Amino acid sequence: MLSLLVPGGNGQLGRELAARASVVRAPGSAELDVTNAGAVIEAVKSLAESAAGDGLAPVVINASAYNAVDQAETDTTRAYAVNADGPRLLAAACAASNVPLVHVSTDYVFAGDGDRPYETDDPVRPRTAYGTTKAAGEDAVLGSGARAWVVRTAWVYGAYGGNFVKTMARLAATRDTVSVVDDQRGCPTWTGDLANGLLALASRIASGSAPTSRVLHCAGGGETTWFRFAQAVFAELGLDPERVKPCTTEEFPRPAPRPAYSVLSDSAWRKEGLPPMRPWREALAAAFAEHGEHFRA
Questions:
Q1: Which stretches in the chain have pLDDT values below 50?
Q2: Catalytic status, residue 130
């Protein structure tokens, strides 16, 4: 059995992990600041000691992140602290206590100008401050000497926190039509499926059959555009999908450029024998079946 420490436990992924794991401590940033070296060392050391006493296998899953993509363009110091320094401190603490680390990263480490799903070994070329800090976090973890794995995901939504699905539901209640970009492609990922995937990976690591690939992709199956994703959300809400209108990225400028193409290949994930993620549309239906009240609130 696993004994987990999940920094970022108050976020949408952290809360999902806490709900699905049996033995877990999932502190939010107020309880465990990943940029505080002393606090990180103590938290990982405590995990290792308590797990040993209970006969459990300790694993850290780092779900903490500064993910305000636009704000990161001007708040780079804080973004770097959380997304790069935090993982570096966690990895060092994990190495010192011999605790495996699973670090969650993002599609934004890629340039987003590809025309085929990104493989785990494709060149990392972030175009935003957020992506740059996340790439630095990956480097820190992989170069730490810890038993560590990086798992990239994309277009995450869930029952907790703010996300695209909840935004669409809110706009649907206040507008006759909603315009959504139709020239950006990616993989919508439900936190429920992502949490299950990360727990499967952690179990593999704890069992002694850890993946040889240290970088993996875990995102919703298939691909779509934000426009088509929004139409699917309207359908799940029981609303007319035709109320969603397509627009271009140029018509909806943002401070941080969004990737035009950020589909992640799961070939390395499958090769390691980890459970493949279901198609994104099927996952969206499952998310509404399980947490519909959260999305409709």
A1: none
A2: yes
